[in-house]
């Protein structure tokens, strides 16, 4: 799972040795892991590393947990909703979609963990272009996803006669 340190702040003036270091980041969880035991594991591992360093033993790192903290969620690849999305995608494109896990937080966890509702993530574009400058998707990908969702809804929910 990814470990990302996205913010690092040190010192207060360019001509002095920094007196502090603040690092902010995220660590992903895999399905089956829970947030609280994972926090304890991370805290224990950082403490164990700090204990091996004379200076850090005297000045141990302090962890704070804030911001988005997402428990993982999963649905079996052979679940009815997965099979239905795969079938709809195949009907539109003539080929099976990639079925894979992802290492980022998503609202899917709320449907599965709190709502007891099987859920999958399906959509247009490449996630590598999401949540960044110049976020974009192609019109072709958008049309494919739109047609797939329409086929899924017609098949999953039925069509009124």
Number of discrete helical segments: 5
Gross morphology: elongated
Q: Could you give the distance between the termini? A: 48 Å
The secondary-structure element order is EEHHHHH
Give me a quick take on this structure.
The chain is mostly helical and about 160 residues long.
Brief descriptors of the model:
161 residues, mainly alpha, DNA polymerase, domain 1, 2 domains, two-stranded antiparallel sheet, 5 helices, 9% strand
Give an overview of the whole structure.
- This protein is mostly helical and 161 residues long.
- The chain folds into two domains: 3-58, no CATH class; 80-157, DNA polymerase, domain 1.
- 39% of the residues lie in helices and 9% in strands.
- The chain has helices spanning 35-51, 54-58, 80-93, 108-114, 139-157; strands at residues 3-10, 21-27.
- It has a two-stranded antiparallel sheet with strand order 1-2.
- The longest helix is centred in the last third of the chain and has 19 residues, at 139-157.
- The protein is elongated and about 75 Å long.
- The protein starts with a strand and ends with a helix.
């Amino acid at each position: 799972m990814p470990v990302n340190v996205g913010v690092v702040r040190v010192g207060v003036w360019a001509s002095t040795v920094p007196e502090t270091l603040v690092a902010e980041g995220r660590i992903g969880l895999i399905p089956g892991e829970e947030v609280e035991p994972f926090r304890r594991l991370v805290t224990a591992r950082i403490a164990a590393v700090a204990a091996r360093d004379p200076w850090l033993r005297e000045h141990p790192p302090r962890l704070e947990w804030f911001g988005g903290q997402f428990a993982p969620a999963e649905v079996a690849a052979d679940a009815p909703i997965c099979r239905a999305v795969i079938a709809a995608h195949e009907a539109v494109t003539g080929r099976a979609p990639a079925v894979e896990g992802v290492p980022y937080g998503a609202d899917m966890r709320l449907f599965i963990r709190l709502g007891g509702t099987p859920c999958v993530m399906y959509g247009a574009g490449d996630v590598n272009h999401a949540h960044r400058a110049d976020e974009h998707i192609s019109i072709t990908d958008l049309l494919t996803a739109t047609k797939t969702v329409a086929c899924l809804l017609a098949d999953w929910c039925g069509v009124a006669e």
